[in-house]
Write a structure and sequence with these properties.
heterodimer, A: mainly alpha, MetI-like fold, B: MetI-like fold, 82% helix
Chain lengths: 222, 213
């Protein structure tokens, strides 16, 4: 057995392009998941009961099934239901809807951790519901949910690898193709593992730094 | 979607359950060892254990499976793909379970261990009779969570050619072109299995009442 990383290294420009695709899929999907998840959490807290039940069903279904199956339904099943998406939009929609189910639960827990007295004080001052969300719930819970949110962001980063199965030309697919070309699978996948490991460690580090910086805003004592 | 087709999916779902269960158990055993090494005062044990946890939590399971699946034949281990799948799933869950167990062992109340010291229990007796049962009870909820994560993650072993639930739905779709019905049915089966695991976990938590400090 011999390792020949030079073979794989000769395709570095392609690898960096694919790294860009992975980061793009991750960041856009993550933003979508956070916004959608926040909307779901707010709708469940302030909306009518039937909406809470319906969204609860969505959260349970998407947290109870594999991301891969969700992607297959969207990408291969979508065209039969009049929804034809290319691989990249399908990956973005899939990651957003899947991640939102988890983020909505993180935000829901965050809302619940904000002391009821703070919300009541806002109501007494005559703040509207939107103002209560924006001025009290959102700033107070940000610090509380940050560790869980960073964790989820890292999980979503790793889940972008699954998009290779529906032919999104991100890091995993690109390096697999290079591995096939050179018949150097082990080198290719080893390099790939190192890439993700590095990315995840960097994200974890950034998360810990921002937690330390934001810790002075931890005023919602549990 | 006929009953015959659904029967094939159910059969494949049982295979998914079997692969996941074996991986969870192997992962638990490895995770025990890794968490013990991480908590050890010996740096030569603690540092590799940290690297183990960091690496297997940092690499996507899909990449890990592809690596192991291709690595095993190169180093002269010729085994069916299901073995590569179980190795990948076990190593991945071992890293997560090691972290959970570390938290569990750290949360065993000090007073209990002091009492055990006073009662003259040896360190080994303390481990077997006090620390391990309490840590297990404390980490049971996260173990159930981990089992559900692995059941879902096991769908990825379809990529290395193991005919479990996801791969069965894929293979049937190749000849039948009914992606919505097949993948929805597969998703439903995953959902039902996970529900059962969650309910069983909640029942087990009620039953194991020791160590509720």
């Amino acid at each position: 057995m011999r390792f020949d990383f030079a073979l794989v290294a000769s395709r570095l420009p392609d690898i960096f392009h694919a790294l860009g695709v992975t980061l793009f899929m991750w960041i856009v999907g993550l933003i979508g998941a956070v916004i959608l998840g926040f909307g779901v959490a707010v709708a469940r807290r302030f909306g009518p009961r039937w909406l809470d039940l319906a969204l609860g069903g969505y959260v349970e279904l998407f947290r109870g099934t594999p991301f891969l199956i969700q992607l297959f339904l969207l990408y291969f099943g979508g065209p039969y239901a009049g929804l034809s998406l290319d691989a990249i939009p399908a990956g973005l929609v899939g990651l957003s809807v899947y991640g939102a189910a988890y983020f909505s639960e993180i935000f829901r827990a965050g809302f619940e951790a904000v002391p009821a007295g703070h919300v009541e004080a806002g109501e007494c001052l005559g703040l509207s519901q939107a103002q209560i969300v924006r001025r009290i719930l959102l700033p107070e819970m940000t610090m509380l949910v940050l560790p869980a949110a960073v964790n989820m962001a890292i999980i979503l980063l790793k889940d972008t690898a699954v998009m290779s199965v529906i032919t999104v030309n991100e890091l995993t697919l690109t390096i697999s193709v290079i591995g096939t070309e050179f018949y150097a699978f082990v080198e290719a996948y080893f390099l790939l593992a190192l890439f993700y490991w590095g990315l995840v460690e960097i994200c974890g580090w950034i998360g810990r730094q921002s937690e330390a910086r934001l810790s002075r805003f931890r005023f919602a004592a549990a | 979607m006929t009953w015959t087709l659904f029967g094939l999916l159910v059969e494949a779902a049982l295979y998914t359950v079997a692969i996941s269960a074996v991986s969870i158990i192997i992962g638990f055993i490895i995770g025990m060892g890794v968490s013990a090494a991480r908590l050890s005062p010996n740096r030569w044990l603690a540092i590799p254990a940290r690297a183990f946890v960091s690496f297997f939590r940092g690499v996507p399971l899909l990449v890990l499976l592809l690596l192991i699946y291709n690595l095993l034949p190169v180093i002269g281990v010729n085994v069916p793909s299901v073995v590569a799948a179980v190795v990948g799933l076990s190593l991945c869950t071992a890293a997560y379970q090691a972290e959970n167990l570390r938290g569990g062992f750290a949360s065993v109340p000090r007073g209990l261990l002091e009492a055990a010291d006073m009662a003259g229990l040896t360190p080994f007796q303390q481990l077997v009779r006090i620390r391990a049962p309490i840590a297990f009870r404390l980490t049971l909820p996260s173990l159930v969570n981990e089992a559900i994560m692995i059941l879902k993650a096991s769908s990825l072993v379809s990529v290395v050619g193991v005919i479990e639930l996801t791969r069965m739905a894929q293979d049937l779709n190749t000849s039948l072109y009914k992606p919505i019905q097949l993948y929805a049915a597969a998703g439903l089966l995953y959902f039902i299995i996970n529900r059962i695991v969650a309910l069983a976990g909640a029942a087990a938590e009620r039953r194991f009442t020791w160590g509720r400090a």
